[in-house]
Specification:
Helix content is 0%, strand content 54%. It has 118 residues and is an all-beta fold.
Length: 118
């Protein structure tokens, strides 16, 4: 199982970025794919998730209305579209996977840095 995150970068406040998580080796219909982030000195926090078969989505309150998670089954990719970015969105973003019904996110990709300048 491999998860490959990409798409981070530097953007000004109010700008947009699109993160991608390429997934392979999963029994896709049994999995959820999620995005998490970790800012310096803070704990990793949940951002958004999507069920591969659904798609049912969930968002942290802090990103609702600004971020959209979606999946492209043809490309085995989950996309996090981030709009109206704020400096507090600055963090390393990670994608992760877990089986439906599990409480633990067992599979993690490497992080991608998102920096929002004020």
């Amino acid at each position: 199982v491999q998860l490959q995150a990409s798409g981070g970068g530097l953007v000004q406040t109010g700008g947009s970025l699109r993160l991608s998580c390429a997934a392979s080796g999963l029994a896709y219909n049994d999995y959820l794919i999620g995005w998490f982030r970790q800012a310096p000195g803070k704990e990793r926090e949940f951002v958004a998730s999507i069920t591969w078969s659904g798609p049912n989505t969930a968002y942290a309150d802090s990103v609702k209305g600004r971020f959209t998670i979606s999946r492209d089954k043809a490309k085995n990719t989950v996309v996090l579209q981030m709009n109206n970015l704020k400096p507090e969105d600055t963090a390393v973003y990670y994608c992760a996977a877990k089986m439906r019904g599990d409480s633990t996110w067992a599979k993690w990709g490497q992080g991608t840095q998102v920096t929002v300048s004020s």
